[in-house]
Amino acid sequence: MARTRTWVTIALAGALGASLAGCSSTGGKRAEDARKAASAQGRAAVNTPRWTFAMITHSGDGDTFWDIVQNGAEQAAVKDNIKFLYSHNDEAQQQAQLVDAAVDKKVDGIIVSLAKPDAMKAAVARAEKAGIPVITVNSGSAESKKFGALTHIGQDETVAGEAVGEELNKRGREKALCVLHEQGNVGHEQRCAGVKSTLDGTVQNLYVEGTNMPEVQSAVSAKLQADKSIDAVVTLGAPYADTAVKARDDVGSKAEIDTFDLNAKVAAELKDGTLGFAVDQQPYLQGYEAVDLLWLYKYNADVLGGGKPVLTGPQIITEKQAAALEEYTKRGTR
Question: pLDDT digits over 272-318, tens only?
C-alpha cells in the first residue's frame, strides 16, 4: 500500500508541477490564451521572493465558476510575483492526494476548497505539519479554523440560502425545488437548508448527477411534470440554470428559475427575464484574495478576518443589476 501511494503521489506531483495543471476545459483554448495574454502583460508590483502557491479545488471538468476563481488567483499571482499552480478533482480522495502532492513539492502556500471536509482533513493537517500556510476558499467555512487554516474566503452558505428563501417570499413563490448537483457537498446541503428555513412555503431537494446534463434536464422535467404546483426551481450553480430553463420549457411549467452563481449566460438570461435572480458570491474575489492574503502572510505575517470567514457574498442579482455586470461576466471576472 505504501509503495502504491508513493507512486500515486509522484504522479500527482508531476501533474501539479505542470503549468496550471488541470485547467477547466470549458473556456477552451480561447479562454486559456486570454488568461496567458493577461498574465504576460502584467508586471509584479513587489520585489519579494518568487514563492510558489498551489490552489487545489473540488471543481469538476467544465465548471465555469472555477474558471473565474482561477482568473482572480492568476491576476493576484502576477501582481505578487507568485508562481501559481492550479489543479482540481471533484473526487474528494483525489483532491486530497493533490494536496499531498503539493506538500511533497514543498510549495510555499496552499489554497484549498473543502466541499467534503472529512476527506480533506488529513491532507490539510499534513500541510500544516510541514509548515505550509493554508487558506480555504469557497467551501468549508465551518471546518476551516478547526483544520488550522489561516482564514476562509467565501460566502456563508446557510446565510446565502436564507437570502434565497427571503427573495422567493418577496416574489410570492410558495413551492421550490432545490437541485443539488454534487452529492456529499456540505455547502450544497447548507444552501438548500437555508432556503427551507426562510421560505414561507415548502422546499423539496432533488439530487442529480451534475456531470450528466441530459440526466439533470430529464430529472428536473420529470419533477415539474409530476408536480404542477412547483413555482420555483433553484439551481446551485450557473451552468445548471440554463438546463433547468430547458426542462421547464419542455413540460410547459410556469416555475421561475433562479440560481446560485453568475456567468455571462446567467447575466444575459437575467437581463431578458428568462431567469428570476442569481446569488453572486464573487468567485474572482475568492481567488484573488486567497493569493493576496497568502502573500501578505508570507511577507508580513498578516492574517485577515479575526478568526472569522472573510465573506464575499451573498449578493442577490436581478435584471436591474445584470446589464451593469454583463461586461464583467464576458471577460471572466464576475
Answer: 999 999 999 999 999 999 999 999 999 999 999 998 999 999 999 99
CB contact set of 300 (below 8 Å; sequence gap of 6+): none
Report the Cα 278 to chain-centroid distance in Å: 15
Q: Euclidean distance between the first and final Cα of the chain, in Å?
A: 44
Cα 37 to Cα 20: distance, rounded to the nearest angstrom:
14
Model confidence, pTM:
0.83
- DSSP letter string, 17-58: HSTTTT--STTHHHHHHHHHHHHHH---S--S---EEEEEE-
H runs (alpha helix) in 56-155: 64-79, 92-104, 117-129, 141-144
Residue 287: its H or E element: helix 283-300
Sign of the CA dihedral 100, 105, 106, 108? negative
Residue 136 CB partners (closer than 8 Å, separation 6+): 111, 112, 113, 114, 143, 144, 147, 149, 151, 152, 153, 154
Q: Which amino acid is at 59?
A: S
CA R_g for the chain: 20
Helix H or strand E encompassing 195: helix 186-198
d(CA 53, CA 45): 17
